[in-house]
Amino acid sequence: AQGSIFDVADLERVEVLRGPQGTLYGRNALAGAVNLVVKKPSGELGGSAELSYGNFNAWKGKAILDLPSFGIFSVKLSGQIQKRDGFIKLTDNPHPVEGFLASTPLKGRTNDLDSKSGMIQVRAEPSDTVTIDYTFDYSKFNQRPDYAQLWNATDFPFVPLSLYASKKRQSSASIDGSPLYERSRSYGHALTAAVEVGDVTIKSITSYRNLKWNDRLDLDGSPLDVAYTGRDTKFHSFSQELQATGTAWDDRVNFVVGAFYYKEKAETKGPQRFFGVYGPGSDSVYQSDYGSHTEAWALYAQTDIKLADPLKLTLGARYTEEKKDISRFLAVGTTGSPLDIYADVRYGDVPDAKYHNFSPAVTLSYEADRNVNFYARWARGFKSGGFNGETGTFGAEPGCPTGLVELCNPYRPEKVDSYEIGAKTRLFGGKVIFNVAAFWDEHKDIQLSVFTASNAASSVVRNAAKARIRGIEVETVIRPVDALTINGSFAYLDAKYKSFIEAVAGVDTDVSENRAFPHTPHYTASLGADLRVAEGDWGKLNVNGDLSYVSKYYTYPYALVPEYVGQQDAHNTRSKGRTIVNLRANVSEIPLGNIKGEFSLWVRNLTKENNPSNFIDFGAGFGGLTVAYFPDPRTYGATLG
Predict the structure, then answer these.
(1) How many helices (H) and strands (E) does the chain have?
(2) Which of 111, 224, 270, 423 is geometrically suited to a Cys-Cys bond with 288, CB 3.0 to 4.6 A?
């Protein structure tokens, strides 16, 4: 996940596709897909540049240069640099007497930002029917991570953790002096060649990505050396796709067919330390490493058929096969002594996990007129199964020589049947856009990750049998006059387990009525407005703002009512939700000779939303230690472009 999102300086648009999108986007597009579409080289000289500065000494520079075409080639260069001081000031130990075992605290700040990214795009057009696009992107981060604020804790002997706990957002903190950082470097190559043959376009899409990620995290939010973890990850992937798109039967049929191949390798080394200078296992060191290979291929097709002028049928399907393997190394020791190896599983020691899936989709749409479209859709989604690489669950099981029972029992794929009906409309001469959609999803073998903090900072991945998720979404854009645009959305979500089998007191029990459904707020809403205040030869002045609201939600599938002493309580890690307000004033199209200038003043999180957005609950083994993570505080600044 660390390398999946990279900075893009020159986006053309963002496409949000809701519901299962497996037909065209493949495995794991269970809930939808987001496409970041980059502007292609134009072949004409042009470009833009902007510089922003804000509080916390934040600054950002961005530049785009489109070069004039030469021969069959067009080239565009783009990139940006961002830097910001940390939101959290690091201080001395506020309890030096009670916390006398604390190490020398770290100095400076954390939650800072330091990133660089760039992109090179080359387009070749050797003929009217052939286009070749090559893209290289590069991103690099070197910063300190988000502060894990100690939210809840009980004390160990000589370890007064509770002194450092607070349920009020902190702007300063004291954490132990171990190195603290997040560093990543990712890059990718993409080559797309398209050839038009009559009414058909044939494409070859080739992609390679490479990632290095290194971090060291203080997970107890105090100057006491209780929980310190790290990851050193190397990852690369390759994909090749062949695709044909076209029309037939006097444009009454549009189609796409394709074949897809994917291969990846990932390796993570995880040095960890718990109770580093006191308590059980003095100077204890954990080494928690894991790696995996994945290989997959697929065939897919989708077609739009105009049954009649207002009626269109869309049929799609994708067939996927994949296999995965795993390696796992887990060792514990103390400083100056050999490691005690608990697990050393090499590639091939356990059977490969193999999966195959057929995911169809059917959409029937009725275009009452060019401004009103009704539709009904059914689609099947598929989220791959696999191995829990960081497992620390030991047990005796016939045919499982490793002792790590999760590796002999990989978690199953998650599948969903999604039913959706809706309408998309444009009313009052285009002044109002109003869309509504209702959906009902039936999930099978839903995958849940549960953090256990046992046998290294690990999680278990469970298949919670069956779940039902349903909801309704409404969105609108209103333009009553040319100078004013208003947009809004509202969504209601209702999620419920239909079956959730878990061992309680050694007996498999259906606990579906007593488990929280994570990250499913009942209500979300947004509201935005853009007003053109004035316009003249000097340019245009616009003021705009947006508000987003998320109601309360749970962050872990824990018990709503604990069934035994020490069981993790879902209410301990429930977010109260959040409301974020952003404002911006912008003067654009300022005439500066042959170029145009722009100046903006902006503020984000105007109301200083201070509710946590996520948690880590370490459970009874760590005395109920829980840390919280917060959205960014209020930031403000100016941009000149």
Answers:
(1) 2, 38
(2) 270
Give the residue-averaged pLDDT of 580-607: 96
For 479-515, give the secondary structure using H, E and C: EEECCEEEEEEEEEEEEEEEECEEEECCEEEECHHHE
DSSP string, 586-636: EEEEEEETTEEEEEEEEEESTT---S-SEEEE--GGGTT-EEEE-----EE
Instruction: Please name every residue paired with 284 in a beta bridge, in sequence order, or none if there are none.
Output: 334
Cα 107 vs. chain centroid, distance in angstroms?
Answer: 30
Q: Please determine, for residue 509, whether its predicted confidence score (pLDDT) is greater than 70.
A: yes
Strand residue runs (E) in 67-180: 73-84, 88-90, 109-110, 113-127, 130-143, 149-152, 172-173
Q: Which residue has the tokens 């579906």?
A: 512
Residues in contact with 249: Cβ distance below 8 Å, sequence separation at least 6, in sequence order: none
What phi and psi values does residue 622 have, to the nearest 5 degrees?
-115, 25
What's the pLDDT tens digit per position in 177-232? 889 999 999 999 999 999 999 999 999 999 999 999 999 999 899 999 888 889 99
CA distance 478 to 38: 27
Helix (H) or strand (E) holding 158: none
Angle at 454 between CA 451 and CA 457, to 5 degrees: 60
- The C-alpha atoms of residue 217 and residue 148 are separated, in whole angstroms, by 9
Give CA–CA dist 340/329, Å, rounded.
11
Phi, psi angle pair for 589, to nearest 5°: 55, 40
400 alpha-carbon distance from chain centroid: 34
Dump pLDDT digits (tens) for 595-619. Answer: 999 999 999 999 999 999 999 888 7
pLDDT (0 to 100) of residue 568: 85
The per-residue pLDDT for 281 is 42
pTM higher than 0.70 = yes
pLDDT score, position 598: 97
